[in-house]
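Possible race condition, two jobs.
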Amino acid sequence: MIQRLTAREILDSRGRPTVEASCLLTSGAIGTASVPSGASTGTAEAMELRDGDASRYGGLGCLRAVGNVVGPIAQAICGRPFETQADLDAELIALDGTLNKARLGANAILAVSLAFARARAAERGLPLYRHLALELGVPVRTLPRLTINLFSGGKHAGGQVCIQDVLIVPTARTIDEGLATAFAVYQAAVALTRRKYAARALTADEGGLAPPFSTTEAMLEDAVEAITAAGLQPGRDVALAVDVASTHFYADGRYALDGQALDSQGMIRVLAEWCRRYPIVSLEDGLAEEDWEHWPWLRDALGPGVLVVGDDLLCTNTARVRRAAAAGAATGLLLKVNQVGSLTEAADAYRAAREAGWQVTVSARSGETEDSWLADLSVGWGGDQIKVGSITHSERLAKYNRLLAIEKETGLPVVAWPGRR
């Protein structure tokens, strides 16, 4: 039974407010969790509740959301027993009563949802990943494969190039080995940035390097060069993943990419050429979130060797996942729990993706905290990949360090990449 809920406003990795909640059960078990916030957001995402007071944090304050946790949410759920996560989340969703969490705020609801999960795990004497696996009804068999930001552009880095991120995918068999590989490539990229651009190793929101690339292809070329400079073979030791985030440079039926105004078919041709020339194994949001007609064309053009991942397209929304699956629009879900606002709704989207035979990449956001629950969720839910950010910044390293601890505790292998080249 929930005895008490508390909450407070804290700051995320971009210095913006977010919500932390604590849940105390009558057994004495307590769980605390904080929620992230995105910069590159889809229009179908659940709504964060912000204060709108321009004199304080530019209107981004979260005191209203905090007030909803300790006010109407606490009044509705304290003193009541909830046997499962689904029971609690159903009550929170009904209490809000809107389609997009606009009344109470997805940040308030998710903070309570996560804190309850942590408290229940503590009550059962289980690590969080074991508890989450039991709630979902899946076995814990593997660790997720790392996809690690190397270079950033788009909304994460001031838009020096249109696309958002180029990530490295170590083919290593362990988390430990994968992080060591990422370190080597990252340091080679730092040296390349200094030599080629006379630039310091300044980083974007998620820790990726952000030199002034002249074109997107220069960004991809530099990623391959950094892998080689680290003494590794592109495509064998380290592959690439690309987050295009194309919604953010799409308007009036055209994609404004590197000085070109491309229609959907032209954009698909460019993406297919990238995948032919570079060791790309995953392409995220290659087309805009409402360009539904052409997503199946993109999937066909890239073929089975490249994972076609939906982020803004899907927004961890079960209905959108099912629509995309029926249309043959994607082969992977980028799962972000705060896009939908509760663990149970994210689990529903996860199940829909699995029913479609898709891969699932569990992802952090550009505005993160030092909370490491995402690492536990990626293991407990059997995520195929995890996308946290670079190997800099403490809010990113908290997740990687938690994965190292889980690896040490369990000895589980890293999941194999599907259709790896």
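Job #2 (started ~2 s after job #1):
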Amino acid sequence: MKLNQFIQVNLILALLFFLCVTGVTAYTSVEEMLQQAREKFYASVEDKKQIEPAIKLFEQIAREAPKYAGRAEVYIGTLVALKGKHAFFPHTKLKLTKRGLAIMDSGLQKVPDDIEALFIHGSACYHLPFFFQRGDDAQQGFKEIIKQLPSHGHTYPPKLVVNIITFLLENAKLTPDEKVYLQTFKDKLESEHPDTQQ
């Protein structure tokens, strides 16, 4: 009995050592991993050192939770395009951006109703220089988000949805009715979840 306990303790210690050495973080849930990946994604906009760790985390999410694979692919594509932003040579910038866009498009095709994927894809297209001709793609994605909010908005973290709506109110080409609808949706979320207020 004592030998078995000794072996178990050593196995646990070996696993902990492996995790520390390889830099792998143990997550309690895929949702926690997704939240960490989102944080790395947003940090990578300013800090290019965060791009590769974010890509690795989204790849892990895609492997461990196939239902998030399309969304993860959109994020990965955006991160590859972001490498283009940080690249020094113009031809490298163009090559990485085009590669990233292809990955983003592929991911979105797999989850065309995913609000988060639509937002990441749309906002990336929105911020691209005009010569990529992705402005219409951005606005179409924004319209699709508005269409999906009533049926799927509750399945995402409220703070994320509030941030998406705020972006749409500030940047999307909206009809007066869409503006009222989004503002009402946002107000309701903020009243139900005070921690979402900025």
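Confidence is low (pLDDT under 50) at residues 3-25.
Logs attached separately.
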